Amino acid sequence: NHTTGPATYPWGGMWQGTFNGLGHVVANLRTNGQGGIFGTFAGGTVENVAFVGVEHYNDSYMFTNYGRNTMGYIKNVYIEGVATRGTGYTAVIRGNNITVSNLIVNVNRTNLSDTNVAYAFGTELGGNHGSNLYVIGNLTRISEKDGRNFNTQLYATVAAWATDNAANITSANGWNMDCWKFIDGDLYFGVKKVEDVTYTSVGADTVVLP
Fold first, then answer.
1. Beta strands 207-208 and 200-201: pairing type?
2. pTM of the predicted structure, to 2 decimals
3. What confidence tens digit (pLDDT) does each residue in 158-181 have?
């Protein structure tokens, strides 16, 4: 269980390393603020990891280099959770020149007023660059920039996504099959099944994830 915010990082808030999750699943994170869970990407890489039970809260970004012209790389990552009440803007990934590949974002928007928005990708000038990206859930739309959908669409359910795309999850398409696997027709990342996000609302600002 961990909450992110405008934290101070020993590397000055600039992520330049490589985080290889080796197919592991990180559970129960809350993003609350624009610091990102790794600080600001500055050439760094996050790969081969799943983040589940994530609550994106209150104008927050999970991965970012917002406001900087630095590079970053995200590949073979699964993100599952909810976007809850905020003050205006929530994005899973926001920034320039972040190259994203082989990513599934499975996030439901909940407890947000009509004036608040939640995207998979918040894009500034230059935008996020991506391939093999899939978005499941009921976010406001895929990207902050209307019409910039990275050759995908917003799927309401995992079943709808699987009908169109499950056959594309192969090593030939860049997916690390040491992390992703099919069991009885269902897609898994490591031990975590890719399934519709469920939650229980217990107040205006609080949800409980399974």
1. antiparallel
2. 0.87
3. 999 999 999 999 999 999 999 999
